[in-house]
Design goal:
By secondary structure, the protein is of the alpha/beta class. It is built from 13 helices and 18 strands. About 35% of the residues lie in helices and about 20% in strands. The structure holds flavin-adenine dinucleotide. The site of flavin-adenine dinucleotide has 40 residues, from α1, β3, β6 and α10.
């Protein structure tokens, strides 16, 4: 029944922003034994705005954390939220290094939009196209350049784990492929089509929750279905197209059939209002008989500068192509199912259990009962980045664990390893090179010999070996008195 059998270190299932970011990060750190299998590209190409901390200060981190918890009604997993906030800036830098072009203002600062749920503008974008498309183009290009396979058109149908290893099965037409992997990263998105009428693309069906439960994974927050509040309901050809909540940050507003800005009955301002509250207030207007014949209300963008509207080309162009001019008429909008905040239960590094990670929309817990707009995309890339780093750590531990014999205890302590590695690199940078600086070397040698006596070092065999190596190099350097080759004794 199985037509092809393959093996790899890391198998990534899903090629949305989460899967591609995870793959790119692994590759950038030297891990290339990766296979990516996916049906298609998921919801990520539709990411219009994505949140990042452009300034990584304590104050900015706290504000972002507080916004996420408040909007999530404090049922979010705070450790996931904190780790997302703490890795936001690093992930942004990683994407910039890959060449992702976010739109900037004339003064060189990032263009930031004010989306639903945020107390301040922190959403980056590309005013020429969906930023999801921009990000994925650079990531796909990078993955291809580095020679890692990205296979689309394959549907994951089953995953199993036994004493021999972890296996995922894919179907493409009549062919069944088995992939055995040390690590499996579930980046298969949300439950899309299962939602019924929704904003979701067709390649994210949602049976993946079932596949996960067959594997014995746990789930969290599956009850938190997200509604996008301002989705086009009419004309038919525009139906399902979200009117960005950023429009409320651009000065747009929602009105009922009397033209009343009903959000202001409960809120001080429309900009930044959480989706859950907008949805409820829209429903209240509909229940009061103040809604439209399409079971919605109206968005008024008529007063917004056309240039600003054109900065959302996917939206503006679609409306204009279907005979709707947002500068001239009210838009028929209303809430539509959009996503699921819940998913596979993971720890703060997106590990579901040993060898299995779940990232992006596949993972639950970070958004709580409602998602800040722009955080679906943000969580997908940041979780891909975090999980890749955690997998790299796991690989180190796995490698260290192999080849242990009875008379040799190989100890592994990742924290010690990281700390010692950093301190050895610092010593390497500062204290020895081809110019022999006697004082610095002696000082470093004393420090390293002292380290050998510490209990901390004794926790990690690789660190003991590395310190010994550094000592050997320093001793050899100190023993040589004359300049020779490129070696200069001062
Ligand atoms: C219309 C729309 C607009 C949105 N706008 C924004 C926005 O402006 N800002 C924002 O932050 N978020 C937005 N979101 C949410 C955002 O798109 C998602 O949260 C994010 O893209 C999820 O990324 P992901 O990589 O986890 O999943 P996805 O991008 O959905 O990718 C899932 C991947 O898994 C694959 N897959 C699924 N099932 C299987 C299977 N059985 N076998 C193999 N492969 C499988 C898919 O083909 C795909 O490759 C929007 C969503 C929609 C639907």
């Amino acid at each position: 029944m199985i037509d092809v059998r393959r093996e790899c270190r890391v198998l990534i299932i899903g090629a949305g922003a989460a899967g591609l970011t995870c793959a790119s990060r692994l590759i950038s750190q030297g891990e290339k034994d990766i296979l990516i299998y996916a049906k298609s590209y998921g919801a990520s190409p539709e990411i219009a705005g994505i949140n990042f901390l452009t300034e990584d200060t304590e104050a900015e981190r706290k504000l972002y954390f507080d916004d996420m918890m408040r909007v999530g009604y404090y049922v979010n997993d705070a450790s996931l939220v904190e780790n997302m906030v703490n890795n936001s800036h690093a992930t942004l830098n990683f994407l910039l290094d890959l060449g992702v072009g976010f739109t900037k203002e004339e003064n060189g600062e990032f263009k930031k939009r004010h989306l639903s749920g945020h107390s301040t503008p922190r959403t980056l974008c590309n005013t020429e196209e969906f930023i999801g498309v921009t990000i994925m183009r650079e990531e796909k290009q990078y993955i291809k350049e580095k020679g890692v396979e990205l296979n689309t058109g394959f549907e994951c149908i089953h995953i199993k784990e036994d004493s021999e290893g972890r296996y995922a099965y894919f179907k493409k037409k009549n062919q069944i492929i088995e992939v055995k992997a040390d690590f499996i990263v579930l980046a298969w998105g949300g439950i899309g089509e299962l939602l019924g009428e929704s904003t979701y693309p067709k390649d994210v069906y949602g049976n993946t929750l079932g596949i996960g439960s067959e594997l014995g994974l746990e789930f969290v927050d599956l009850e938190f279905l997200e509604y996008e509040p301002m989705v086009m309901l009419y004309p038919e050809k525009t139906k399902g197209e979200p009117c960005p909540t950023a429009m409320l940050g651009e000065g747009g507003y929602l009105v009922n059939k009397s033209g009343h800005r009903f959000l202001l009955d409960e809120l001080e301002t429309e900009a930044g209002a959480p989706k859950s509250i907008i949805n409820r207030l829209i429903q209240r207007e509909i229940d009061r008989g103040n809604g439209s014949e399409f079971n919605g209300i109206w968005a008024d963008l008529r007063h917004i500068d056309t240039k600003v509207l054109k900065g959302y080309p996917w939206f503006y162009d679609k409306l204009m192509a279907n005979g709707v001019d947002p500068n001239k008429e009210l838009l028929n909008v209303g809430p539509m199912k959009h996503s699921l905040s819940g998913g596979i239960r993971v720890d703060k590094n997106y590990k579901a259990r040993n060898g299995i990670y779940a990232i992006g929309e596949a993972a639950g817990g970070v958004h709580g009962a409602c998602r800040c707009a722009g955080n679906g995309g943000a969580q997908s890339v940041v979780s891909g980045f975090i999980a890749a780093n955690a997998i790299l750590d796991d690989i180190l531990v796995d490698e260290a664990a192999s080849g242990i014999s009875d008379d040799f205890e190989y100890k592994v302590d990742l924290e010690t390893y990281k700390r010692i590695k950093k301190s050895l690199i610092d010593i390497g940078d500062e204290k020895y090179g081809y110019v022999k600086e006697l004082g610095g070397m002696e000082e470093a040698l004393k420090y390293l010999n002292g380290l050998l006596e510490t209990e901390e070092l004794n926790k990690d065999t690789k660190s003991i070996q590395a310190v010994k190596s550094a000592i050997m190099v320093l001793e050899a350097a100190l023993a040589r008195d004359e300049s020779i080759g490129t070696y200069v004794v001062k």
